[in-house]
Write a structure and sequence with these properties.
This protein is α/β, with parallel strands linked by helices. About 40% of the residues lie in helices and about 15% in strands.
């Protein structure tokens, strides 16, 4: 009696095993195929729709600190990002003019001027300026975008010493208040900081995970396009270095016959009535060098009073903000080249993104 009941129980336990193995053999490959298809579909979506896996690449430099690799053409989040042969975020153009009528404008700055991957090439201020100047002056125009995230005046000066002034007619230097003490550290950044890659990732999904998802989950510091708010008072040596570099840039441009313009950009929390300390330091240096700074903050404030939002985050302009910068700089550039301004400053009228 006991033996029969025990045998039945043992038989009952043994019976499902072949069934489980049979189900595994039947469903295992199907599940694996589904996972492979989901992964492949996700990779294709991330690569060809989002533009991940093909980031703009950077390279380290012993004098400039870092700059974009030359000759890049990328698509990122639906935006076109291009760097020419001179690591400028601009279309290609020859180092020297072939047409004496051609107007050349160098716009120099950091991530504010660069626009980042969230701004299409056609929407950054330098591209907008180039189109407007061509239309209004009826002559060939090149507006060169010399910029990289977190560059300060010493980085910008080192670039100009390396590459020269490209037969330019006008130099526009765009600085934010923190730039008064923004100097190179030459700490390892390129290939270390996810926002400064030096090679393309093998997988677009891996880049999305490490560069964008992990910071949202709190496992990695989010990139702010090279901008890091100051957490300690500026060192006097850094201020002296940065202002000496600004002074040398202005002098370099003037000695080459360029008309030099300096424009000051404010963070979203700044105001002209209560700017950060560096704003006054930069303005005083500019005036000592014979320049009257252009206050971009006035144009941004005017846009905000009209109910527009020109900032993407605490400091970076969105597409509208880039258009605001272009509108604010246009009359100054036209005056610099002896042309009567054909548009009013951005503060007097509504700005549209085109």
């Amino acid at each position: 009696m006991d033996d029969g009941s025990t045998g039945a129980r043992e038989g009952d336990e043994a019976t499902p095993r072949p069934v489980r193995r049979s189900r595994l053999r039947r469903w295992g490959p199907r599940v694996l195929l589904v996972l492979v298809l989901v992964f492949a579909g996700g990779e294709l979506f991330a690569r060809y729709y989002l533009g991940l896996g093909d980031p703009p690449l950077m390279m380290a430099d012993p004098q400039i600190e870092y700059l974009a690799k030359p000759d890049q053409d990328c698509r990122r989040f639906g935006n076109h990002v291009r760097y020419n042969h001179y690591s400028m975020r601009s279309d290609d153009f020859p180092a020297h003019k072939a047409d004496p009528r051609e107007l050349r404008v160098l716009v120099i700055g950091d991530s504010v001027v660069n626009g980042g991957v969230l701004s299409d090439q056609s929407k950054i201020a330098t591209s907008v300026l180039q189109r407007k100047l061509r239309n209004e002056l009826n002559r060939p125009v090149v507006v060169a975008n010399i910029s990289a995230g977190s560059w300060g005046p010493p980085n910008e000066l080192a670039y100009l010493k390396r590459f020269g002034l490209f037969d330019a007619d006008v130099m526009v230097i765009v600085l934010s208040s923190h730039d008064y003490a923004d100097v190179p550290t030459f700490a390892p950044t390129v290939g270390v900081d996810p926002s400064s890659p030096d090679h393309r990732p093998v997988l677009a999904l891996w880049e999305g995970f490490t560069r964008y998802l992990l910071p949202r989950l709190g496992y990695r510091k989010a990139s702010n396009e090279g901008y890091t708010p100051a957490t300690a008072p500026a060192k006097s040596a850094d201020v002296a270095w940065s202002m000496a570099a600004l002074r040398e840039m202005i002098d370099m441009g003037r000695r080459a016959g360029l008309r030099v313009i300096l424009a000051q950009h404010l963070e979203r929390a700044e105001s002209l009535a209560s700017p950060l300390p560096g704003h006054g330091v930069i303005a005083d240096e500019a005036r000592r060098d014979g320049l009257a700074p252009i206050e971009l903050g006035a144009a941004f404030d005017a846009a905000r009073r009209r109910g527009q939002q020109p900032y993407r985050d605490d400091i970076h302009p969105n597409d509208l903000g880039q258009a605001v910068i272009a509108e604010a700089l246009l009359p100054a550039i036209e005056r610099a080249v002896g042309a009567a301004p054909t548009t009013a400053p951005a503060a007097t009228g509504r700005v549209t993104v085109r």
